[in-house]
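Q: What structure does this chain adopt?
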Amino acid sequence: MFTGIIEAVGEVVDTRLQGGDLRLRLRTGKLDLADVKLGDSIAVNGVCLTVVDLPGDGFWADVSRETLAHTEFELLRAGDRVNLEKALMPTSRLGGHIVSGHVDGIGEVVGRREDGRSIRFQIKAPAALSRYIAAKGSITVDGVSLTVNGVEGSQFELNIVPHTLDETLIKDYSVGRRVNLEVDLIARYLERLFSGSADEDSHDNTDAGGLSMALLAEHGFTGRR
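A:
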């Protein structure tokens, strides 16, 4: 698990195709690798990767066909910058939100404009993900935990403050850029709870742990009774 608070911006050093999979070598810059060992997880642009080798100035990781099919990693080339975050420890501050490192889909930057010292971006999400994105909710873009400013259809807006621009690769974004998206885990679980169990006999069985709008209203969570 991760927090979406980027610890360093690294660089792709080498990409090698191996049997249809991809092996990446990344230089990690200021990311402290002193406590990292083989088998540990590091999020790269929001994708949870396993460390398979530690050459000293970074690490190697394998990227499966499944990951290539659902992220923008197929576009990575030597010299590209990437956001890096080590896995969450039990003692870490949860400064962002709970991030799994499992990308849900690929978005596209469709707008960018200056707003004081900040930059506002419009990003188009896949239609299947738009229902999980809410104004003032959380979303992860290339591994960065961000607050959604507004939503219109499948597009959402982000206001990126100077500190985030300085500490991530978001300032490099231009219109047309593809980005990895991970929606808030809570939104996914709520959808599953509202949809009920796949077993027909459990749809209306709130005693067995089912969730319904009526039950939420009864306990004052929806403002309706």
